[in-house]
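Hi support team,

I submitted a single chain yesterday and got back a structure, but I'm not sure I'm reading the token output correctly. Could someone confirm the output below corresponds to the sequence I sent? I've pasted both exactly as they appear in my results page.

Thanks,
R.
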Amino acid sequence: MKFNFLSVLSAFLIGFLLVSGAHAGTVRDENHLVPTGKGWAVEQSNSPFSVVTGNGIRYHGGPIMPGTVNVYFIWYGNWTNGPRASDRSTTVQLLESLFGTGGIGGSGYERINTTYGDNASNVTGDISLAGEYFDSGSLGKKLTDFKVQTIVSNAISNNSLPNDANGIYFVLTSSDISEGSGFCSRYCGWHTHASLAGTDIKYAFVGNPDRCPLSCEMQTVSPNGDSGADGMASIMAHEAEEAQTDPDLNAWYSGGLENADKCSWKFGPTKTTPSGARYNQTFDNGYKWLIQMNWENARHGGCDQTLGGTFYFQ
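Hi R., thanks for writing in. Yes, this is the structure output for that exact sequence:
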């Protein structure tokens, strides 16, 4: 294990959630985040859906996100000439490509989520970047959970981004921005939902892990030459998976763990670039990524890199 603030098992149980409502406070229920505590674990290989149970994860009756899920980026802080190289345009371009054409949407990795459904439909695995907005720091450099919610609310109310009930709004902070509820010390990212402008809005926080590489970057030598962007990519994929299968925090989870939580900091087999960076996904746009696996709700369940592939940590 490269570094560990907490053991992986106990770190899985750390979490939080915001109470719905534009002026709600915070309540912690030990769920819905990417914990710190990464490490290369010992991985063992084992050789039409709707609501399917009995695969290591339970359904609690809530809705999933159907159809094409729209992703919105809110770039908060200094993403032009910030204190680290990863606070600049390369990071923006890489993460745009991850959720853009030829990226994660519709990939075999994303199709793992098609094994999750509610009583009306299934997750499709179609997800794409639909808009982005730059906020240079309207609420200062020290954020709270409520300020993150306010950043999303303001972006919608000032018409910088649409009011989209089938969207996921990512607040992405540059490395000089802190989040006082535990970024870098307790978590690397989280997702939740709230009623904003009369709509059930799903949103997530992911900070630049170059702020705390020992806690939130699996590797500092990265496949795309941008450790912050590559670290954010894995955390964003994790939160996107969970937001689709458990958007209102009442659908798919077991023992406090959502689907991606069950595979947190687990990557399966990897390849190595000439620079020594490890990766496990390429998608169609040619970039190489190191992405945490997701729990497949089929074949008795297991962590997988692609739908129908080989299970790891079953």
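A quick pointer for reading it: Residues 56 and 94 are 34 Å apart (CA to CA). Let us know if anything else looks off.

Best,
Support desk
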